[in-house]
Here is the input.
Amino acid sequence: MTKNIAYLGPSGTFTEQAALLYDSDADLIPLTSVLAIANAVDNGTVEEGVVPIENSLQGSVPDTLDLLIHDTTLMISKEIIIPIELCLMLKSGTKQQEVEVVYSHPNALGQCRKYLDEQYKNAIQIASLSTAAAVQDMLSSKKPAAAIGNTRTADIYGVHILGRGIQDNKANHTRFVVLSKADHEPTGSDKTSLCFSFGEDQAGMLHSVLGYFAEKNINLAKVESRPNKAGLGGYVFLLDIEGHRKDDNVMWAIEQMNNKVSFVKLFGSYPKYEY
Here is the structure.
């Protein structure tokens, strides 16, 4: 049976590319925000949703992390990692030296900072909802404009690609996750994502919690923090660990952690992506 899968649209985004890689037979439904995607999965309009969560140059995607921490009970059931090649596009009739505005998603603008500083230092950079929306913004702009996106977007909208691979670092990858009502069963090669916070601030508390994972030889794939939105100086810590939440060693470490923290939330266990 064909799935309905929501993704961060419109058509032509890297998220659509990730969704196609995940399930090329699915009916893909573009939505305008990470929250809208989560709501669609939650209310049953779609079975799953694909959202960006991390870029190798710009780091984590705050909207997705904040959603997982605060705004949904959905779980991560898969991850997809794709290489990102960014292109500079112009509409027909616009010359490079005329460009006054460059549109793209904030992450894409950040990934091309050096290029833009060198080639378009006098142009205003304006954030769009997505790289595909940036092309729409460019086409409707009253000022001579450019957009940063991917080659599929250029094909869809029939615009000219002036520069390819303009990202500052060629080793540019974005990690996407699939949001579902349940996570994935163990495969033997898994990751688990979770977050936690402390009720009070004391020296060594984070070290003691992370020590439980070290004690069971569990590799920490990622450690970071986000503001807890309760006040300045309060943080939620996020972990990606190797292993499944049903593995005995992971279960033990999380159980011990529960005795030290005031809050813990599992985002899900899922197969590690194989390139």
